[in-house]
Amino acid sequence: FALCLFREKKRRKIEALSEKMAVDEGHVACGGDWDGRWNHLKKFLERSGPFTLPDFEPGTETLQFLLETCKILVIGAGGLGCELLKNLALSGFRNIHVVDMDTIDISNLNRQFLFRSKDVGRPKAEVAAEFVNSRVPGCNVTPYPYFRVELRLTLTFEYFIARRWMNGMLISLLNYENGVVDQSTIIPLIDGGTEGFKGNARVILPGMTACIDCTLELYPPQINFPMCTIASMPRLPEHCIEFARILQWPKEEPFGDGVSLDGDNPEHIQWVFMKAQERASEFNITGVTYRLTQGVVKRVIPAVASTNAVIAAACATEAFKIATSAYVTLNNYLVFSDVDGLYTYTFEAERKENCSACSQVPQDLQFSSSAKLQDVLQYLTESTSLQMKSPAITTTLQGKNKTLYLQVINIKRSLVFSFSLSPSVLVSLTGAELGLADGQELAVADVTTPQTVLFKLNFTS
Amino acid sequence: MAANKAAKEQKYDRQLRLWGDHGQEALENAHVCLVNATATGTEILKNLVLPGIGAFTIVDGHKVSGEDVGNKLNRAQAATELLQELNSDVSGNFVEEVRAAGSYEMSQIWLDTCLRLGAVLWNAEVPFLVCRTYGLVGCMRLVVREHTVVESHPDNALEDLRLDQPFTELKNHIDSYDLDSMEKKDHSHTPWIIIVAKFLEKWYSEHNFQMPKNYKEKEAFRELLRQGILKNENGAPEDEENFDEAIKNVNTALNATKISSTVEDIFSCDLCDNITAQTPAFWVMARAVRDFVRDDGNGILPVRGTIPDMIADSEKFIKLQNVYREKALQDASVVSKHVESLLQSVGKVHGWHLNNFITNAAFLRVVRCRSLEEEYSIESVNKDEITSCMDNPDSEMVLYLMLRSIDRFYQQHSHYPGVYDYQVEEDISRLKVCVNSLLQEYGLSVSVKDDYIHEFCRCGSAEPHTVAAFLGGCAAQEAIKIITQQFVPFNNTFIYNAMTQTSATFQL
């Protein structure tokens, strides 16, 4: 569901590498390619054409670059990832790295075709790599069934956060000279997403085109049912299920002390299902089924092979274009739906001037002088352009770095640790306790961004 | 057996949430035939095998070439084995010999095969999907005489609330509420449908029984609702979310209940008028609903019976929901009687999913495609569509014209343009001749940019995998739509341009 292309200055480096290749022992020049294997690619790489990029030079170097040098990172080996790996491997990419910390589940098998039922329980990245490496001679997929420790907490429960994190990471790798981005430090990011019969694919050139955070409003946060509805006024079967999950489970701890609800455990789902049914019959609500229960508890997104095939194909096509300059890249966002006929819409998402991720500009925060710390926290988490999860705020007071607020929540979404400079978040920002002044700079860290975001407080009276 | 069924439900869980158990059943009872196991063809099949199509048959006389991956087997067999591996629930087989004179040659002349096969399938009323990846262009053509869709699953469907003409039971239920005498708790948890209905009554008495029609009137009506919000001791409005919902929904809730033109068209089809023993279920049920509309429904469809969720206490919501549900059941049984009498008159009985039909009556769709013969014949070519699209010379229509041209090229030169490097230059001018003769023959006064002619020589009929994969995904889903009779298929030519990542659908 996301691809990063590592593209080096092709012409110079390929020459240097060719020399190295000739000397290396046991290195097969073309990975055992048989006659005609890359014919379909050669037509686009060895011939000039009317729609190529200006810097495109027909010749054999580009195919060599694809086969030998180009490195590509695929994040996720699931519905989109499996399709992507296949597409890339069959398009000449060989130096492929794939990250996925998930293991294979039986419900993956209707679309994640690199896996078989005998693979259930094994890490996706490993099985995917094995499959591609054995079926596509010469291809070298390296699996990473893990990632850096800080990410562990996030990638497992919120894929969208992972996207934003990767987006921020690539931005942090950019070098700027006199305010202009050094193009050789740009690592293109191709991002795809699907849901049922809808999907989108986009190309991001960090520092140059709109990034994920520039268009955060396109991804509004998930809306949860109001607590009072769940607690005392259920109307839909979903309300009954959420009642069992959110209120009854923690109270009754049906499978032991401290045992959290595991959406992948059928016995847990069965318990929630039965409790939801009881609640539903109390209120004369119909429609609670096992399938609905599982869908609500696991926040299941319906998925089918065809949509993933389409979006992954579009992403791989873009990867090919970026790596070869054989055609103009998508600029920069494609939307797809095949509910009614087939519909695509292509547009250029615009950069946000004050994007919190890529604009290099400290973010302005406007508050009244009577505002409280809680107001800042609320803004950081609820603003559609920021959508932070659990921001940690530090600032410099009297020459010392102080933590204004920090909250650590673990994977199971239960609070582990909370710290604030003041005992209550209702403390006034400008009051005696915190003493923040107009123009105060706040540094905010959050799981949605690998770099600290700088904010500047402006107090209006 | 039970364990197998449970395992299948788990495996297909994510797609069952899209087309349901009945959709899955239709898929598992289906048998598709793929002619030519090209990259595109195998991608399409992969996307049908994974979700569990019943069976597939591959017809292909070719040997595997260097461009295909690896084996020295016959293409049909190799493809069948690889695909079979993806899902043990599916049964696949292949046919290498095409039993017709000059068969191997025929399969080379792609267009020829297409048109002949198309004619046979049109007469046999078998849906035919023609797919092709040519360079960075993908093209799909659906050929089906008539395809009816009950479950079209529309996005953003309007609710069927009947506020403009409440049926008796709804009217009685609304009357049972007296907003003015309610305690705050009840007042704040009364469904917005009731609130709008009550205030509509007030509005009627002051506006000659006319609904708010334009923006000004709807705004005035919203103001009326705002006035209805309870005030606290200081005269400030209380927090009543149900009233907020009412105000938000004024735009759509006050629309006149009426039948869409799509459904009216279905009602006025011949098939609806003349019910015989051979009439398919869809048309019998459509006729029954039409009879309901004329005899029992006062010109509108049977009540759908669903309402959206809204702020309300459980009891009030459930009661209101049941009013709609019971009326829907009542209307359904009247429609059912119409079905029975129609069938009786032609001597049949049925076990059809009538309720499904009735709930979806407002969203019925019928797709009818022209035959390939009609598309290709000079007398019936869709000149208007082609010329108007070509007002924009970079419209996807130019890619369609190029595909038609390279087939013409093949007929004349027995190879596609630019397959070999040495051919590219020469073929560009020869292809241009083909383009011009095509345009002339069909009387199309449009011009095709040289860039496209160059591009279609450069690509040398290559079938890049990523373009084949895109088309494979699209095509498989269209096939699934036809098989499950859910969601609406395209009509009838889809062109995908991977160079620009754009697409278009033309009715040719």
From TrEMBL, chain A:
PROSITE patterns: UBIQUITIN_ACTIVAT_2 (PS00865)
Catalytic reaction annotation: ATP + [NEDD8 protein] + [E1 NEDD8-activating enzyme]-L-cysteine = AMP + diphosphate + [E1 NEDD8-activating enzyme]-S-[NEDD8 protein]-yl-L-cysteine
Xref: Pfam families: E2_bind, ThiF
GO CC, alphabetical: cytoplasm; nucleus; protein-containing complex
Start and end residues of each E2 binding domain: 365-460
Pathways per UniProt: Protein modification; protein neddylation
InterPro entries: E2-binding, NEDD8-ac_enz1_catalyticsu_C, ThiF/MoeB/HesA, ThiF_NAD_FAD-bd, Ub_act_enz_dom_a_sf, Uba3_N, Ubiquitin-activating_enz, UBQ-activ_enz_E1_Cys_AS
EC number in record: 6.2.1.64
Taxonomy, superkingdom: Eukaryota
GO BP annotations, alphabetical order: protein neddylation
A GO term, aspect molecular function: ATP binding
Active site: 228 (glycyl thioester intermediate)
Role according to the record: Catalytic subunit of the dimeric E1 enzyme, which activates NEDD8.
Family affiliation: Belongs to the ubiquitin-activating E1 family. UBA3 subfamily.
PANTHER family: NEDD8-ACTIVATING ENZYME E1 CATALYTIC SUBUNIT, UBIQUITIN-ACTIVATING ENZYME E1
Name of this protein: NEDD8-activating enzyme E1 catalytic subunit
Species, as recorded: Denticeps clupeoides
Organism classification: Eukaryota, Metazoa, Chordata, Craniata, Vertebrata
UniProtKB/TrEMBL annotation, chain B:
TM region positions: none
One Pfam family cited in the UniProt record for this chain: ThiF
Boundaries of every THIF-type NAD/FAD binding fold domain copy: 12-95
GO biological process, any: protein neddylation
GO cellular component, one term: cytoplasm
Domain of life: Eukaryota
One GO MF term attached to the UniProt entry: NEDD8 activating enzyme activity
InterPro entries listed in its UniProt record: APP-BP1, ThiF/MoeB/HesA, ThiF_NAD_FAD-bd, Ubiquitin-activating_enz
Keyword hit for Ribosomal protein: no
Family: Belongs to the ubiquitin-activating E1 family. ULA1 subfamily.
Family annotation (PANTHER family): NEDD8-ACTIVATING ENZYME E1 REGULATORY SUBUNIT (PTHR10953:SF29), UBIQUITIN-ACTIVATING ENZYME E1 (PTHR10953)
Name this protein carries in UniProt: NEDD8-activating enzyme E1 regulatory subunit
Recorded name of the encoding gene: NAE1
